[in-house]
Amino acid sequence: MKYEFLFPELGEGLYEGYIVAYMVKEGELVAEDQPLVEVQTDKVTTVLPSPVAGVIDRLPYKPGDVVTVDNVILVIDQDSRRTSDVMNNEWLNIDLGQAEKQSWNDFGINLGTYPSAALEDSSDETIVKMTSTRKEIARIVTKSMQTIPHVTAYAEADITNLLNYKERLHRDKGLDLTLTPIFAKALSQTLHQHPMFNANEFNGSLKLFSEHNIGIAVDTADGVVIPSIHQVNGKSVDELAQEINALVERARSKTMLLADSQKGTITISNVGAIGGGFATPIIFYPQVAIIAFYRADKKVVVTENNELVVRKMLPITLTFDHRFFDGADGLRFLNSFKAHLESGYEDYLN
């Protein structure tokens, strides 16, 4: 009897994906739960295990091919005359050092050792083919730019006092925070005041959400991925710091959970560590806004008393969907966000 392995729906609304790599060959004997194929959607990369034992009869696709839900992505021959009870389970007995294990997924499979669309043969060495991850990023940003009229507003926030207060928390309470969880909490505070920005586009309308599920753009070796921190409005900055660290680690080691990439309502891009002072980020469709932070630099600022002082100034951009918001809406949102960074931070940092 031949078992047809259908491409599953890996999440709400995820009906299409890519074959990243097959981890078996035709004619190979496989055990139940053995990793068979790595697939990728616009939100998650995952490995699908075998639901049955048998012999691989057919691999109908190649790396980089697009598949949709219920496509047959693999056929397994369950004929008892061909399938032995003594399976080759060497894939279960992987013995690596800790440093190497960190780059392997939950199945013990080093995804980087498998071929991808970027490794297809080509006689022209000047052509660099897209990996499946890069193709998916291209598809998402193209759809976003073709669908959404983007507008970007710019502002600078004086975070001198915030940074000093962060240092006091570290000294007095041992709370060692990066800026990203602080930005996430300040954004959540701002969304309470401007709830229309915490939304997805839905059939030409806005679908509003009560939970602030903030996406964090993570720079990985394969490209940017955007996992989400859920219910930011109900968590402390310390809790957010721990979750963000774990999320970034999973994103960079290719061990993201399906839930990590679902239900995002707005996105943060913090590129301060890389540098730059201004950009026009692309909205992560179907969200309607993305806020970005750049390198904070010391600048000479004129006070209201006409005094010259040196302050640490943070560049911020807010890119939003012009179908739902005008420039004045974006600037009001930025002004509120700036206020949560420049004053009142003690309320949400404690």
Would you mind describing this structure in some detail?
This protein has about 350 residues and is α+β, with helices and mostly antiparallel strands. The chain is built from 7 helices and 19 strands. Strands 9, 12, 15, 16, 17, 18 and 19 form a 7-stranded mixed beta sheet that branches. The protein has a 4-stranded antiparallel beta sheet with strand order 1-8-6-3, with no helix packed on it. Strands 5-4-2-7 form a 4-stranded antiparallel beta sheet. Helix 4 packs across helix 5 (about 235-250) and helix 4 packs across helix 6 (about 325-340). Residues about 85-90 and about 95-120 have low confidence and may be disordered.
Provide tags for this entry.
single chain; about 350 residues; alpha+beta; seven-stranded mixed sheet; four-stranded antiparallel sheet; 7 helices; elongated
Described by strand count, sense and barrel closure, the largest sheet is: 7 strands, mixed
Q: Structural class of the helix and strand makeup?
A: alpha+beta
Number of strands: 19
* Count of DSSP H/I helices: 7
Q: Compute the average pLDDT.
A: 84
